[in-house]
Fold these 2 entries.
Entry 1:
Amino acid sequence: MNFYLFLILSALTLLSALVVVFSRNPMYSVLSLIVCFFTIAAHYIMLKAQFLAIVHLIVYAGAIMVLFLFVVMLLNLNKQNEVHKTNMVKVAAVITGGLLFLVLIASVRTTELSAFTLPTNNEIGYVQQVGQKLFNEFLLPFEISSVLFLSAMIGSVVLSKK
Amino acid sequence: MENTIIASSQNWYIVLSLLLFCIGVMGVLFRRNAIVILMCVELMLNSVNLLLVTFSSFNESNDGQVFVFFIMVVAAAEVAVGLALLMSVYRNIASTDINVLSKLKH
């Protein structure tokens, strides 16, 4: 495993996530969230989930973020008029996030993870393997998710037609 | 040296996704713009996805990747409905500030 590549990608991911949270302009938040999704897709490729990386790019960077950009531009929010909360709320939020991280890290440290090696089998993330799993074992959830999509579509049309 | 890094690389991925999740929680707590709050929820969903892919890849099985597909489905549906809701909120009060949305309090 290329450890330095992992470090660079993680730094980029965390940096762009922080820009999403801390930038005052919603436009910059959307753009850096796109950068964050691209680096996460690179992580997927390093973890041998090639098909998932492409789907992630198409769904998130291609569809969801375009939706976000569209709404930000439609509502004309791309100006820096957002009043932030008071400093006390900010400090409290940062402390809360840090404490949550501490608790999670402490719980991970006490678990006994057996020493894994990186996968040698390259093919678990290919379209064929994932598709066979999806259409054999997970066929019912797949069909139900289409109903979920249909209801989401109808719901968003009804909500925005009013 | 190289082997120890490889053996513990799963822990690095866990730390990365925990950090991403906590950044998302922080954003939800202190942003006021509802669109940015939705984006922070997306960030948290993605950190969970990254963790699932890590475990599925280290177990050499692609069950976790199928779960990630379903999380993506839910995220896409959630964003579509959430943004439609935000549009109708904006049409009523001409703002996406969540502090203005406090009518249920009175």
Note: The domain at 2-98 of chain B is CATH 1.10.287.3510 (Helix Hairpins).
Entry 2:
Amino acid sequence: MGIVSVRNLKKEYGDFTAVDGISFDIEQGEIFGFLGPNGAGKTTTINMLIGLCRPTAGTIFIDGIDSIKDIKKAQSIMGVVADESNLYDEMDGYDNLCFCASLYGMRKAEREKRAKELLEWFGLKNAGRRPFRAYSKGMRRKLTIAAGIIHKPKILFLDEPTTGIDVESARQIRSLILDLKRQGTTVFLTTHYIEDAQRICDRIAFIVNGKIVKSGTVEELMENAEKEHIIKLTLNDNANGIKAELQRHFPTIRIEAEEGNTCFISSPERIALSPLLQYLDKKGISVFEAKEMRPTLEDVFVKVTGIEVNKLHKEKEGGKK
Amino acid sequence: MNSWIAFWNILKKDIRNYYLKPPNISWGIIFPLSWTLMQLIGTPQAGLDSIRGLLPGLMGMSILFGTTSMLAVTITFERRGRSFERLLIAPISMTTMVLAKISGAIIFGVSIAFSPLLFAAFLTELSGINWGVAIISILLMAVTSTLLGFAIAVSSKEVFEAQTYSNFFRFPMLFLSGLFLPIEKLPVFLRPVSYCLPLTYGVDMLNGAIMHTGYMNVWLSLTVLIGFGVLLFYFCQWNIKRKWIL
């Protein structure tokens, strides 16, 4: 049993099933990524794990504690960073951290020491006495994460930690998450930035319509995808016009045309290009560029979930506004 | 874990952050103070002694508006910014959390309750008040009004919404709880409503302490107020669990 062990977890709202009997384990010290589109059940799952939502069925054990029966005990070893930077606008950064520490019973001297330590670590030392409302988005996110770990939790739940912030702050946050892992903290992370998950997660689960459709290490998830060979061709003509004819002539390869002059050809076998190029040449179509594509986790995600990544990003960014 | 650390820090934060928020200033301070001054300034024509008779009503009204306004601010501001979730996911019991959240409003309500007394002290003689009963009734009125405000605030999303919902209760209570109009002068069909309102018992106790004209037995009022307090306290906890822990 891992530090988090979830079995047949289910949440229903009337006729609607938000989470449909999911099971997973998270090992001590790993970063576990939870990926899925809006409405897939990510936030409902995280809310059930942290005690903001009551499961309809199933069990949750956190560090051996039955968190459905004794959520307050489980909450003492967990840190939570919501998808919004939900600290107190009226208070400055330092006071916000001290207040959050007090909620975990930390004494004054201890919480003041820890708050100073975290402000330094998160590069917010000079902003410590500024009101939270005056912080930039990136600073707000960092301080919210600092507040989540003020009491040195064994497990940290991070909901969309890099959404809506600048590139540099996102990079710093990824680095902070990896530092936390090095210190032994277990991290449960939800994100729609698949490349973020690929970079920092030890294991990832894809959730769609309340069900985990695939899970494993990045290597495991990529295993089948990497067996496929993909070549991107840039033509001098509209790719859609020739797609059907090409597919008929080369039935062993799969051809997908994008809008414009680009098409992708894929096959489980290595692709011999010269017959293809000769055929196109005969048809009077020139190939400007042929590039071998390495499959990414995004490709796996799109294949497994059927959801376009761009659509996923737009949904999320729209939701944040 | 020392729950007192959490309790004390939630209370301190609420006092520092919310006592001087505009919605609290307008409904929790300016409204009861201006009503008090209007009544006190207008009354001398009827004789200075009648000022004393106004005090229970003015104090009850100040408590009602002070506590419910404060709660509307502390709960809805935090709910809107989702900082209230921090309290729900902290390893503190719901009882500690509710006690901490209501304490700021109770202290505020009790402080505002003394403003009519302070003004009246300049205009009339205040000797002969049973301070023990007066303070207990002020405290219990503050507790029950705060919990009533809590119940309303939990169901509201915005501060203005909470203040509006509160007014649906507060203004009828001004007239139904015997604050300015004795219950025996109310139409018979309205009197049962009066006896369902905790403020009725608090103001009656205050009338007994200040004017020695209490209508009900002081022990009965005390028991009813404590009963209302306990009932509302558990209702608030139940309501939070129901509405916010889905």
Note: Chain A touches chain B at residues 13, 47, 50-54, 72-73, 75-76, 78, 80, 82, 84, 86-91, 99-100, 102-107, 147 (CB under 8 Å).
